Fold this sequence. Notes:
This protein has helices spanning 6-15, 20-23, 54-60, 78-89, 111-121, 132-137, 144-153, 175-187, 201-213, 228-231, 235-250, 263-272, and strands at residues 30-40, 43-52, 65-71, 97-106, 126-131, 191-194, 218-224, 279-285, 313-319. With 320 residues, it is α/β, with parallel strands linked by helices. Helix 11 (235-250) packs parallel to helix 12 (263-272). The radius of gyration is 26 Å and the shape is elongated.
Amino acid sequence: MGRIHDEVKNGHLRNHPEELDWIKRFxxxxxxxxxxxxxxxxxxxxxxxxxxxxxxEETFGINREVLLVYSPYDKxxxxxxxxxxxxxxxxxxxxxxxRLFAILVSNDSDVERWIxxxxxxxxxxxxxxxxxxxxxxxxxxxWYVRNRVAxxxxxxxxxxxxxxxxxxxxxxxxxxxxxxxxxxxxxxxxRGVFGLRKTGKTSFLYKLMRDLAAxxxxxxxxxxCKSTSIRQRTSSELLRKIAEDLSEVIGVRYPLPSDDRFLSxxxxxxxxxxxxxxxxxxxxxxxxxxxxxxxLRTHSQNSTxxxxxxxxRKTVGHRS
Length: 320
C-alpha cells in the first residue's frame, strides 16, 4: 500500500482537500510524492508525481515517477493535453518523470473516449484517463487503478504507427546510426538509407533533421520526393528550386541563369559560396519517385538529381 507524503498532505491537499477523495485511490499502486497547482494555456490544473510501488513497477515496466494531471473542468479540450506536454518539459518533472506515460484525471465522464480520439490524430504519449467521480466510487477496490492502467496502457501499441514520427516522443533506438549520419554531415560525406517499407526510414530522417537543426552551424533542406510538388517537376525545375532554397538558407543572393542548360553550373558555383563555418545537409526522402525507375513519372524529362537510385532509397547529401 502506497502512502501520501507529508509535504503533499500538509501543502497541496490542505489547500485543495476536495481532491483527497480520489487521489488516495492511487495509493493501491503508487506513492504520491509531490503535488502543486499549475497554470497553463489559460487553465488551472493540479499536478502530482506518483512513484510506482515495486509490484506496479514490475507489472508495467515503469522505472520513474508518473505525472498525473487533474483537470477540474467538465469538458476536456486539446489544451489539456498541451498542458501535460508543458508540465512534462518543465522543472521539476523534466528528467524525473516517465516521458512515455501520463495519467489524466478529469471531471469529464467521457475522458477515455476523448483521449482515444485525440491520440488517433495527434502524436502524443500514452495518457491513461480516469473520471474523478469513478475513482471516488471505486471505494476499497484495490485493483481498480491497476486494471484501468492495464486496459489503456496495453491497449495501445507503441510500435503501431502508420505515419512517420515527427516528434521525439516515441522515437528511440538507432542512436549509433544517427551518430554515424551526424558525423557524415560534419565530414561532408554522402549517405543513403535503404530498407523495406514501414521500417522507420522517414522517421529516422525526421529525427536526423531535428538533431541537425539543433547544431548552430548546420542548416538542412528536406525534400519529400513523393509529394506532387517535387516529383512532377522536371530535372531543371527541381534544380532551380534547390538552388533558390539553398540561396535563401545560406543568405547569399546568387543570380540563376534563364537558360536551364546552365543550372547545374550555377548550382555548383552557389555551393562554393557557402561560408566555411557553415554546413548544409540536403535530404531526399522517397528518392525513387524522382528516379528513372519511378512508376509515377508524368513527363519525359524526369529529375536527374537522384537518377538511377535504388528502389525505396533515402539519401542525405552534404557539403562540408
